[in-house]
Backbone:
């Protein structure tokens, strides 16, 4: 595994992270913009990147904007909106080929950063507001995205479990916002939200490729307007939240298969020394096909169509997802809770330990093959205030003992049981 590390800098409000390398034929660019999750801003902030991608002041028409990407030898441009801890984060991504491999008459990294800078800081305006036609069209896009979650019952159950579990925390909010907020959004209100976002968000710009920190700094100075001030910091979310009693919620909808989800507070986050043990905890519990949930709930007891767990290391939450027959609710609940007890006892076979370490190691090694994955991994350090290379994490995982995993398990508390079932009584 390569130990090449990112070089850090800063230009006004933008933190810069540059990895000079000749390993890739492309430049990979990511701009993260994060705000605290809040119900008054979450929907407008989610809409902003959808509107910004439609055009810039110099390329106001969407077709012309796409043509500009084609001129950059088919550069990729996209964005995501997600949450990490209690932050709502917009990530803009660009991939463009290194000029050395094409006969370009323009420096492609400079042109790409110029385009990204325009998208973020110089959008197309009409009468001082974001273009009304684009705002209305993208409101519908956002509505469809949120409706798609309701229609996908696996995702819906997963989101509802977190909403119930974190009812009094910002984390309950979906990063794409709330359906009921969309109608009230106007070009004026989203423009105001955009200006607040531009002046308040935490900005981190990553570039991986054959360049230097100094070059990126000078290009960003030319390309990003109006970013004066100091960088905003990410706050650390509340992690240690004692569970007074386990909440149980049963919801009824038109569904043909039950969704049994559980929310666990593992009281351990990415920045903690015992995070590698938490990774192992999730891996042995339900992270992989050899894990306890998969083997015991799905295979041996044939109680579930799927059974798995997922860890959010920035929030210190582990969630269990399973799909079951309605009649198997009590049985499945019992057998899943038995797996949690097993985790507390520290009885993991050598095979479970070795297979889980191997799976995590494979994942950490694979990161090195993708510039975007390396960027995503490094961004964890910004969010958690904990610098940790993939190589370090790999070594820490390899050294985890059964007792360290059991210690995480004993700190873990079952917070919420959520069951989505049909409308029939019984």
Residues:
């Amino acid at each position: 595994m390569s130990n090449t590390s990112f070089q850090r800098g800063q230009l006004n409000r933008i933190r810069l992270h540059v990895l000079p390398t000749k390993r890739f034929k492309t430049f990979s660019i990511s701009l993260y913009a994060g705000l605290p999750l809040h119900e008054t801003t979450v929907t407008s902030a989610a809409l902003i990147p959808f509107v910004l991608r439609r055009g810039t002041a110099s390329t106001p028409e969407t077709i012309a904007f796409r043509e500009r990407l084609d001129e950059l030898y088919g550069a990729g441009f996209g964005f995501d909106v997600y949450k990490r801890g209690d932050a709502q984060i917009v990530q803009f991504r660009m991939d463009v080929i290194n000029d050395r491999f094409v006969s370009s008459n323009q420096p492609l990294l400079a042109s790409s950063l110029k385009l990204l800078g325009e998208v973020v800081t110089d959008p197309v305006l009409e009468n001082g507001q974001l273009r009304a036609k684009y705002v209305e069209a993208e409101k519908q896009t956002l509505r469809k995205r949120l409706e798609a979650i309701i229609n996908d019952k696996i995702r819906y159950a997963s989101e509802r479990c977190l909403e119930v579990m974190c009812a009094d925390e910002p984390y309950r909010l979906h990063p794409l916002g709330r359906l009921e907020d969309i109608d009230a959004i106007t070009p004026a209100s989203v423009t105001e939200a955009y200006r607040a976002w531009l002046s308040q968000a935490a900005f981190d710009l990553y570039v991986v490729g054959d360049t230097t920190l100094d070059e990126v700094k000078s290009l960003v100075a030319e390309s990003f307007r109006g970013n004066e001030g100091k960088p905003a910091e990410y706050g650390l979310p509340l992690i240690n939240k004692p569970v007074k009693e386990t909440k149980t919620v049963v919801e009824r909808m038109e569904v043909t298969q039950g969704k049994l989800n559980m929310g666990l507070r593992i009281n351990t986050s990415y920045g903690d020394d015992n995070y590698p043990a938490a990774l192992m905890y999730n891996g042995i519990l339900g992270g992989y096909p050899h894990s306890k949930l998969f083997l015991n709930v799905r295979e041996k007891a044939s109680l579930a169509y799927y059974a798995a767990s997922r860890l959010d290391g920035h929030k210190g939450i582990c969630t269990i997802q399973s799909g079951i027959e309605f009649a198997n609710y009590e049985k499945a609940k019992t057998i899943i809770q038995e797996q949690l007890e097993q985790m507390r006892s520290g009885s993991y076979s050598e095979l479970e330990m070795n297979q889980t370490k191997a799976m995590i190691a494979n994942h950490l090694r694979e990161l090195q093959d993708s510039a975007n994955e390396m960027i995503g991994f490094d961004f964890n350090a910004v969010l958690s205030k904990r610098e940790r290379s993939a190589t370090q994490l790999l070594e820490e995982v390899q050294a985890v003992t059964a007792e360290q995993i059991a210690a995480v398990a004993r700190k873990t508390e079952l917070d919420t049981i959520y069951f989505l079932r049909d409308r029939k009584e019984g």
Observations:
- Residues 69 and 293 are 45 Å apart (CA to CA).
- The chain has a mean pLDDT of 94.
- Residues 247-421 form a domain with the Cytochrome Bc1 Complex; Chain A, domain 1 fold (CATH 3.30.830.10).
- The chain has 14 helices and 13 strands.
